[in-house]
Amino acid sequence: MLQHMTGEKRFLVVGAGTMGNGYARMLAGGRVPGAVLAGVVDIDGTKALELAGATGAPAFGDIETAIAATGADAAYVATPDGLHRVPVETLAQRGLSILVEKPLATTVEDAHAMIEAVNDAGVYAEVNYSNRWNPPFIEAMRSVESGEVGELRSFNVCLNNPVSSPRDRLRWSGGTTPAWFLMSHCLDLALWLGRKKALTVYASGGRGELAGYGIETYDWIHAVVRYADGADGVFESCWILPDSWPGGAEFNFKAIGTKGAITVDTTYQNIAVTAERHRYPGTIQWAPARLQAFVRGIEGQGRTRVSFEDGLEVTKTLVAIHRSLESGGVETV
Ligand SMILES: NC(=O)c1ccc[n+]([C@@H]2O[C@H](COP(=O)([O-])OP(=O)(O)OC[C@H]3O[C@@H](n4cnc5c(N)ncnc54)[C@H](O)[C@@H]3O)[C@@H](O)[C@H]2O)c1
């Protein structure tokens, strides 16, 4: 068992993939005050062992064994999009605080079951809509709260990835869509900044490029979301930006309010390096601050929180968006 100080939260990282690696290394590297890595769990033994080797924490093939061996009291869940429910239910039943990756769930039924599980167990739980800790959006929230831009009325948000992301990095991209993977962030930002309840959606998308690589999902999805107060938003998520794209993502956000407007573009990361190729190295990092906020939240001190109810709201909107993609019509959320 790793050495730890009294009061420190002992984390399990469930899912030793891209996100699990990042969060486990942050915890093991002492980058999150008040939290340590107690163990890593993955059903893929090789992945668990690799991450265990890199962090010095023990590896496990299932959550029950990991809890029994480590006495962990918190968990970060980074399993694929549609596979969050079972780990969350197991962790809740065992009384651990839970930070689960976005989207909370890919069905409304799963989202409700997860809310019931954490409520029944009385555990602290959040969804990792991490852009709420992305510095430009923290500033956007300050601007909204100050009243200077008035009531937000119109959103125009795009979050896109180069094709190598679904083609080479994400082994399960054929089991999800760019809307679940990317648009979920954009919808959560509109929900958080505008406190908007989605009423109806219309969505359209295209297929073909990824199918050519044997990945049966949408290349891109566009959605128009109408909110209960008459505001609306246009959202784009695309998975086929060229691989020559100079950064890991294209992320443009515009919100127009009754008294002003906010625009954010994190694509360029405040730096361009032109060497063998032109690129924008990632500089706007917020993951440690997000995890720190979760730890403070467990202790009842969090300011920003992503509740499972907010996660349900985004899931409901996305379920309607996928219905609209199939029906070709406007769908009620
Ligand atoms: N917050 C963000 O900015 C952000 C960014 C990227 C991805 N994500 C989300 O994080 C989640 C994980 O994405 P990723 O890119 O790390 O995926 P990944 O494929 O790299 O990793 C997922 C891991 O989960 C493991 N796994 C599957 N079922 C499991 C189970 N029942 N128990 C334990 N391990 C299990 C897999 O073997 C795999 O190693 C997704 O929901 C994704 O949408 C969030």
Structural class: alpha/beta
- CATH class group of the largest domain: Alpha Beta
Spatial sequence of strands, sheet with the most strands: 12-11-7-10-9-8-15
Helix content, binned percent: 25-40%
List the helices and strands and how they pair.
Layout: E1 9-14, H1 18-28, E2 35-41, H2 45-55, E3 59-60, H3 63-70, E4 74-77, H4 85-93, E5 97-101, H5 108-121, E6 125-128, H6 135-146, E7 152-162, H7 164-169, H8 178-194, E8 198-206, E9 220-227, E10 232-241, E11 250-257, E12 261-265, E13 273-274, E14 278-279, H9 287-298, H10 308-327, E15 331-332
Parallel strand pairs: 1-2, 1-4, 2-3, 4-5, 5-6, 7-10
Antiparallel strand pairs: 7-11, 8-9, 8-15, 9-10, 11-12, 13-14
Helix pairs in contact: 4-5, 5-10, 6-8, 8-10
Features:
single chain, alpha/beta, Rossmann fold, Dihydrodipicolinate Reductase, domain 2, binds nicotinamide-adenine-dinucleotide
Can you describe this structure?
This protein is of the alpha/beta class. The chain folds into 2 domains: 120 residues, NAD(P)-binding Rossmann-like Domain (Rossmann fold); 179 residues, Dihydrodipicolinate Reductase, domain 2, CATH 3.30.360. Helices cover 36% and strands 26% of the residues. The strands form 3 sheets. A 7-stranded mixed sheet has the order 12-11-7-10-9-8-15. It has a 6-stranded parallel sheet with strand order 3-2-1-4-5-6, with helices on both faces. Strand 4, helix 4 and strand 5 form a beta-alpha-beta unit. Helix 6 runs parallel beside helix 8. The relative contact order is 0.15. The mean pLDDT is 96. The structure holds nicotinamide-adenine-dinucleotide (NAD). Nicotinamide-adenine-dinucleotide binds next to helix 1 and helix 4.
